[in-house]
Amino acid sequence: MKKVSYSEFGGPDVLHLIDAEKPQPGPGQIRIAVRAAGVNPADWRVREGQVLKAHPLQLPAGVGQDAAGVVDEIGEGVEDVRIGDHVFGRGSSTYAEFAVLRAWARMPEGLTFEEAAGYPSVVETALRVIRMVGVRPGQTLLVSGASGGVGSAVLQIARDRGITVIGTAGAANQDYLRHLGALPTTYDDGWADRVRQLGPIDAALDLAGAGVIPELVELTGDPRKVVTIADLGAPTLGVRFADTTGDVPAALAEAVDLITRGKLHIPIEKTYTLAEAASAHIDSQAGHTRGRRVIVV
Ligand SMILES: NC(=O)c1ccc[n+]([C@@H]2O[C@H](COP(=O)([O-])OP(=O)(O)OC[C@H]3O[C@@H](n4cnc5c(N)ncnc54)[C@H](OP(=O)(O)O)[C@@H]3O)[C@@H](O)[C@H]2O)c1
């Protein structure tokens, strides 16, 4: 099979499309014929060697953690899927023709493989940070970096729960945030004053790592009401960094429910082939993805 792989940490040019053996699913795992793989910032952070302390990795390594496809082989003890089922979920080395998943759910009716591949990590992260920050129905949540993959999921889940969201994004994404039910403003000069004029803030999420933790603490009045997924310096200001992946099967089940009820849709910014994985990483690293970029196999 074809698979994207790298033998040294570095820039996008370390990625190569190689021939490899099909991976074998272990107990509690499944193998899928990958139809699409989601591109997450974690993929290029790992490729650069940024997260080696937390996640030691042996080279050569594959790329990708999210995918959607057709069940092709079933590991010992797995009873909830059959060969041929269409599933989406999380695993490893998903930029490939075949990949092993550790967590999955059946794809909701009407969802394409391309769309489905964009959901697993962003929905798990969105559910985790909303829970961590403790925002309740009727309250107002400020989201810095609201138009990306995680932001798109946070805004829609919050709306479904009756939480008002004020979101920051680039000028080109103001209408997009409005369409997702949020009160938008841009993140350029004076943004904190503009947010203040939109109303009092009960809790805040930093999803972009844009260096705004002091302002988020000031706007909420309490570092315990702020959570970041992208600013490693935040804990020095008393703000929690959400870094431990939560319950992925539960998150996938919740994603299916939200999608089926028409409450959640993550748009695809652009699709790429396996051979274009380096371009997908360059575009993701540019930092202005709306929704998710997806590799189509
Ligand atoms: N700790 C964890 O568990 C965890 C989990 C998932 C993701 N992450 C991290 O969280 C970050 C977001 O992930 P993602 O998948 O949502 O990324 P993404 O889809 O690439 O989105 C990035 C977003 O950042 C926005 N942005 C760029 N500059 C900004 C600024 N100065 N102020 C506010 N927003 C700005 C962009 O908005 P515009 O296009 O509108 O400019 C873009 O929509 C990444 O750094 C990722 O590595 C961490």
Could you give the topology of this structure?
Layout lengths: L1 E5 L9 E4 L10 E10 L1 H7 L13 E2 L3 E9 L11 E7 L5 E9 L6 H4 L3 H14 L6 E5 L4 H12 L3 E6 L4 H6 L3 E4 L4 H8 L4 E4 L6 H8 L5 E3 L11 E2 L6 H13 L7 E5 L4 H9 L6 E5 L1
Parallel strand pairs: 8-9, 8-11, 9-10, 11-12, 12-13, 14-15
Antiparallel strand pairs: 1-2, 1-4, 3-5, 3-7, 3-15, 5-6, 6-7
Helix pairs in contact: 3-4, 3-8
The structure holds NADP nicotinamide-adenine-dinucleotide phosphate.
NADP nicotinamide-adenine-dinucleotide phosphate binds next to helix 1, helix 3, helix 4 and strand 9.
Q: Which properties best describe this structure?
A:
Quinone Oxidoreductase, Chain A, domain 1, binds NADP nicotinamide-adenine-dinucleotide phosphate, six-stranded mixed beta sheet, globular, Rossmann fold, six-stranded parallel beta sheet, alpha/beta, 297 residues, 2 domains
